[in-house]
Every structure is written in structure tokens, then in C-alpha cells.
Design goal:
Distance between the termini: 27 Å
Helix content: 10-25%
Shape: globular
Strand content: 25-35%
Strand order of the largest sheet: 1-2
Number of helices: 2
Mean pLDDT: 90
Radius of gyration: 15 Å
Oligomer: single chain
Number of strands: 2
Largest sheet: 2 strands, antiparallel
CATH superfamily: Nucleoside Triphosphate Pyrophosphohydrolase
Low-confidence stretches: none
Length: 103
């Protein structure tokens, strides 16, 4: 999940987070979907989550990841159908598969 710093735009936060988590810059950024959902938190009750989903390509590796507990994996999206944590993630994954040329 991308967290904004006060002075950042949504796209600036996306670019910064991907560098921090993967070490790569990104290019060909396209908005794919915007979806809302609710989940229950023991401490805060129901929370609305608005997800802005983008498709992009990795560009150049410019550094090592800052967040050492993140691992970059290349996976087939079909392998994760039925395995997502939240319903909105499952919906977005299926939409991505249906709208792409992934075999």
C-alpha cells in the first residue's frame, strides 16, 4: 500500500514506494482502476479503503531496496486467482487477467 507524504502527489508516492521496495524506477504508468472497499479493524471499526491501481513497467535499477523484508518476485497472475486476501484484490486481479494478453 502506498502511503503519501504531505507534499507528494499520488504518482510521486507510487514512484518513491517502488524505488524503496524494489530499487527500480518505473515507466509507462497507466491508471487501471479505482475501487473502494470496507474492512473491519478491531481498534477502529469499519474502515473504507480506496485503492488506485496502476499498471507500469520496471525501468532501471538505481539502488538496492530500502525495505529489506520485501522480495521482488515475478509471478503468473493466474497462479493467484482465489488466493488474494481481500475481495477487491481478487476482483482487480481478474480484471487485469481479462484485460491483458497473459497466458
Amino acid at each position: 500500500m502506498v502511503e503519501f507524504k504531505k507534499s507528494e502527489t499520488e504518482l510521486e508516492a507510487l514512484k518513491r514506494e517502488l524505488i524503496e521496495e524494489s530499487g527500480y524506477t518505473i515507466k509507462n504508468i497507466q491508471e487501471f482502476a479505482k475501487i473502494g472497499s470496507y474492512f473491519y479493524s478491531e481498534t477502529k471499526g469499519y474502515i473504507e479503503v480506496i485503492a488506485n491501481v496502476y499498471i507500469c513497467e520496471f525501468d532501471k535499477k538505481i539502488t538496492n531496496p530500502v525495505e529489506k523484508d520485501h522480495i521482488l518476485l515475478w509471478v503468473n497472475p493466474h497462479d493467484f486467482v482465489g488466493k488474494m486476501c481481500r475481495k477487491w484484490q481478487e476482483y482487480i486481479l481478474k480484471e487485469f487477467i481479462n484485460n491483458s494478453n497473459i497466458e
